[in-house]
Amino acid sequence: MTGAGAEAGAGAAEYRIEDLAHASGATVRTIRAYQDRGLLPTPERRGRANVYREAHLARLRQIADLLDRGYTLASIKELLEAWDAGRGLGGVLGLVAEVQGPWTDEEAGRITRTELDAKFGGAQDDEAIAEAVALGVLERVPGRDDEFLVPSPQELAVAVELHGAGVPLLAISGHLKELRGQVEHIASRFLEFTTEHVFARYLGHRPPTDSDAAEAASMVRRLRPLAQQTVDAELARAMRLFATRHLHHHLVAQESTMEGSETRPVLLPRRTTQAVQELVGVDHVAAFVAAAAEREVQARTLDALTSSRAIANKVDEKG
């Protein structure tokens, strides 16, 4: 039996199972488990020993790569059977790479603990650091206790600005948790929507053909920016709407306080709100409702005064 890397007469390397394990990084137990599952081709039996070749080593490396990409052993078996049937894995792996690649042009950065503390006013808050690491805002650099990887410098910059405006660090992390859950829901719905209407025709096969997977990867590249563009546009619209309402509410409350009166929020039926929006536009709903209410109060005041005057006249006539 030849060892790892040794050449047989035909020039092909042959491996004992221990040598194959060393060359592939898998354990002997793992290799045998893959054989039992049908993930590895049957080795050649030579006497009392099994002989493995380069094809087995290549297959082990493929399995390791697919496991790193998040595939289960069951799905890997389907993909490898497609490969063996001549359908190819190039398109599938291209699709995986496209989906698992970065979904933003933002580049990760690094920051030292000293620089981080300085950005947040010089305070050394170990609890806030631990929370940031747990959320993935910061990642520890192996072997460097004083340095962090910053996956999204923009996200860190937002936290710095909020803290500078007076928001406590733990309040920022709590808000991020809530926001992340809502954004993940939006992402999930967008994925369900595009899968139903776009990707179902590519991913209906198990596994997809090489050409279908390649087309799906191309479609991912086209649709990838749409999710962020849609969220950006809708967030801008919603922020303008609610910020305008919020500001108007506080200005009216302040004005009423100055006049010695009390302001209470009034909830309008959805249909009424929609009708007003169609009439005057989203930005003028609050002003319209306030003006309409004021007009109604004035009309009722005039009616009351007129009614009181009429009653007084009748009393005078009877007298």
TrEMBL record:
Entry-linked PROSITE patterns: HTH_MERR_2
InterPro entries in UniProt: DNA-bd_dom_put_sf, MerR-type_HTH_dom, MerR_fam
Keywords tagged on the record: DNA-binding
GO molecular function: DNA binding; DNA-binding transcription factor activity
Keyword Nucleotide-binding annotated: no
Protein name: MerR family transcriptional regulator
All residue ranges annotated as the HTH merR-type domain in the record: 14-82
UniProt source species: Streptomyces globisporus
One Pfam family, short name: MerR_1
PANTHER family per UniProt: HTH MERR-TYPE DOMAIN-CONTAINING PROTEIN, REDOX-CYCLING DRUG-SENSING TRANSCRIPTIONAL ACTIVATOR SOXR
Lineage, broadest ranks: Bacteria, Bacillati, Actinomycetota, Actinomycetes, Kitasatosporales
